Amino acid sequence: MKNIFKKITVLAIPFFVTLLMVSGCKEYLEVQPKSQISISDAFGNVANATNAVIGVYDELMGDNGYGIRINMYYPYDSDEMIVSGNIDNGRRGIGRYQLLLTNAELRNPFLQLYRGIEKANLCIEQIPQMALYANGSDAEKKELRRLHGEVLTLRAQFLFELIRNWGDVPAPFTPAYKQEDLFIPQADRDVTYAKLIEDLKTATDLVPWRTEVGPRNERITKGAVKALRAKLAMFRGGYALRSNGKMERNADYQTYIKIARDECADLMAKRGEHTLNPSFEDIWRKLTSFTYDPFGEIIFEVGAGGSNSNSDSRMGNYNGPSVNAASRYGTGGGGLLVLPNYFYAFDSTDTRRDVTTTLYAVAATNVKSPRRLGEITDGKFRKDWRVPLLQGTALNPGYNWPLIRFADVLLMFAEAENELNGPTAAAISAFEEVRKRAYKGNEGKMGKTPTDKAGFFDAIVNERYLEFGSEGIRKFDLIRWNLLTQKIAETRQKIQDMRDAKGAYANVPQYLYWRNNGEEIQWQTSFYKPSTTTTAPAGWTRLDWRQHLTTNLIDGMQLHAGIARFFVSGKSELFPYDQATVDAYQGKLKQNPGY
To answer: Which segments constitute the SusD-like N-terminal domain (predicted)?
Structure first.
């Protein structure tokens, strides 16, 4: 997305992660940093300090950030979506959980996250030391405090991403130039979480609310800090894979669940700042058309721009429906596949189904053709929704990545309140607010909300499943609930049952019949009723639907067996440290369990 908060990197300083690429520490520390400006100049006035903070934001985006790898490789396979194609030592190795230490997709995002931490640490140190921080004009002091709050939040986001993928990671909180040994030990993630949650409490008082700072941009505001603090607290209060190879939850988990509940309650009381967009589809239409959303449902988003691999995104090019480069929409799609059980998890009247999933590909002639049941793709970031169109083979559509939406706040509140007090009226109201939007116009079909604690928790697990498809959330939710192993097994069984037309899937049709109505697809039969014939009516074309599950192969195996094929409970919940990082630490880094 074209940034209002324009990105400029101004600091060329030695980073913690640079050390991972050299063999010795002493020589590295003797090298003088090659900077165009000194640190004192970089933090000599508000404008320069702002540019330094923009340099921290830079490390969120690009191919090694939330442009493709962290947000579209790392969260899969799960029980919603999988990476497409046969296994390799890259993104598909990640998706199938065959994570070799030489996997090239692990190292560069890891380094970029630490580069972001180093930049943030320098800003966190320097900004409060600026003379203007205490003695400037009211406007200068206000802006510097905002910048301070922003970098505290950014550091928390970088470390959060490292923790949820690698577990007990080194957690530097001071700039590299002050560290005697840059190969610092791994930190207990619980201690790191506690520090970050306290930092975010500080940041809350430093940054403004969204409506206090004028037009929308990608800068962090108070709602983003509070929502991120709630999310970190939910993870600190959840299950995690420990060094003993066991999924465990700390005895003090309710302390953090309460923090999350309270932060969400504060946000829910400020509906003039953030609330649900009344239309689920409109969230994504606005995002893909670079349009301001007055509801502010996307609370924290990563800005993309520049049409390059360092600062732009690949959403819509990598994922979404497959679009031929010769079409008016330009090239795109196909990197993620929607699992058949996920498509059928939606009720036919749930408006999220046809936004989150796409049943078509776009040909060079712009005409849509249907995809079979094992070929459905995700849809929130689709290339053919882009306004203006981006024709040709451009790799970077410029879509922002949404890190936290208000729907997440509502469902975190409902989950936390249920954990603490059971399904209270407030918890049910928050849960049903999300659900009512999904069934807008058909609220009578949304079903009855459970009123027992266990039943309500299961309903939340399912609602987050339906609400956040392809947003990089599901796998990590399942880990913090200690449900990933169970859901992978259930998914394999569901797809096998669907293939065999058993149980809940007895009515899934073997074939569908379709034709084009102009460029669009018109369906002759229902997705929810069995096929009555194997012969297409005159003027219609037969599509293998459930039939496709009997022939579609992934990794040489039936689809249901190929999902997360090499997943091992007690190992695969975390990534390994790549071999180059292990070698650089010279025995000081403990590898994650099972690798």
So the answer is: 97-232
